[in-house]
Amino acid sequence: MLEIIYQDEFLIAVNKPAGMLVHRSWLDKHETRFVMQTLRDQIGQHVFPLHRLDRPTSGVLVFALSSEVAAQAMPLFVSHQMEKTYHAVVRGWIEEAAVLDYPLVEELDKIADKHAKTDKPAQPAVTAYRPLGKVEVPYSTGRFPTSRFALIEMKPQTGRKHQLRRHMHHLSHPIIGDTTHGDGKQNRLFRTHYDCHRLLLHASCLRFVHPVTGAAVMIRASFDQSWQQLFDQFGWCGLTDQ
Q: Where is the Pseudouridine synthase RsuA/RluA-like domain (predicted)?
């Protein structure tokens, strides 16, 4: 059962689990569980995705309950007329809030995008971020006897593919659990010492103006057990509420 965190007669939102695909994809023919099909079966009606979350990312995921509402709502999501808030755990300590304006070249999939142009210029990509907490743990991943990590909040101003993961990699603060843009030694530390086997990136809040009613909507998604365990161990409980 998916956790439904918002529902009215036009829209429905779930707290997507990490590791679950939004919809069926030929890129992973062996997968049998998808958010879209699971939610359809759970509520007994078709749903229409308005945006996406990467497979390893958890958090707020919104669907329309009809194709008509989807057509009304899609421009909101395409033009980023909403505020998205994410939380992540990254390598190293981040001391100050900042805005990273760093254009990104489009990431192409070897199979799905094999006919796409590869000479496109970098596209604007902007991410605001701020530190919420930090921790130093007694485990080494290199030349130092300890390792440092930070809990951060991020608000993307644009929606490039893997933007948050690539931006944090650019800052040399890769997100823990990122097997593409991250640090294998840090990921192994979290698997070994904290039994954490997921990407520590969570879409925690989404704010927007309802496309039908015009009302202000805020949808929050709670953190799963892996996150809660880290909050307890690192003394980070309550920091994401700031």
A: 11-170
